[in-house]
Write a structure and sequence with these properties.
The protein has 156 residues and is α+β, with helices and mostly antiparallel strands. It folds into two domains: 3-84; 97-155, no CATH class. It is 54% helix and 20% strand. The protein has three helices and six strands. The protein has helices at 3-44, 49-84, 129-134, and strands at 97-100, 104-107, 112-116, 119-124, 142-145, 148-155. Strands 3-4-2-1-6-5 form a six-stranded mixed beta sheet. Strand 1 and strand 2 form a beta hairpin. Helix 1 (3-44) runs antiparallel to helix 2. The protein is elongated and about 65 Å long. It starts with a helix and ends with a strand. The mean pLDDT is 88.
C-alpha cells in the first residue's frame, strides 16, 4: 500500500466512523425522547409504589443514555480533531493509521474491529494495550503482541 493510499484510507475511515457515531447519536436521541414520553405518562398515573418504581427506572435509563450520548459526542469530537491534524509519519501517535505485518490499526477511538472496502481495521484508543504497545514505534520496529511477532510496515 502506497503512502497516499494509506492517507486516503485513513480519511475514509474517519468519515465512516463519524457517520456511524452520528447514527448512534440519532438512535440515542430517539430513545431519550421515548423515555421522556414514558416519564410524562407515568407522572399522569395515580400515585403508588409501582409508579414510583417505574419513574425511578426511567430516570436511571435516562442517565445511562445521557452518559452514552456524551461518550459518542466525545468520540466524534476526537475524530473531527484527528481529521484536521497533521500526523507524523515517522512514529506512531494519536491519529495514526498503522499497517503492521499482520494488521492495520487506527489509533484514535476504541471502536474495535471495523471493515472498510474489504479491509479489516482495528480502531483502538491510545490507552488500550495494543495502543500502548504501538505508540512511538517507528517504521521497521518490531513488537510482540498476544504472543505474535509483528513489525510496523507503514504509518499514515
Amino acid at each position: 500500500m502506497q503512502a497516499n493510499e494509506l492517507s486516503n484510507l485513513k480519511q475514509q475511515i474517519i468519515s465512516s466512523l463519524i457517520s456511524q457515531l452520528e447514527e448512534k447519536k440519532k438512535t440515542h436521541f430517539s430513545h431519550q425522547k421515548d423515555l421522556q414520553d414514558a416519564l410524562q405518562s407515568e407522572q399522569k398515573s395515580t400515585a403508588g409504589d409501582k409508579h414510583d418504581t417505574n419513574r425511578a427506572m426511567i430516570h436511571l435509563e435516562q442517565e445511562k443514555l445521557q452518559h452514552q450520548y456524551q461518550l459518542l459526542q466525545h468520540q466524534i469530537q476526537n475524530l473531527v480533531n484527528i481529521k484536521g491534524m497533521q500526523v507524523s509519519t515517522n512514529s506512531v501517535e494519536f491519529g495514526s493509521l498503522v499497517k503492521t505485518s499482520n494488521s492495520i490499526f487506527f489509533i484514535g477511538v476504541g471502536l474495535g474491529k471495523q471493515f472498510f472496502e474489504g479491509i479489516t481495521i482495528y480502531c483502538i484508543g491510545v490507552d488500550s494495550p495494543i495502543g500502548q504497545t504501538l505508540i512511538h514505534k517507528k517504521k521497521g520496529d518490531g513488537f510482540i503482541f498476544n504472543g505474535q511477532k509483528e513489525e510496523v510496515l507503514q504509518i499514515g
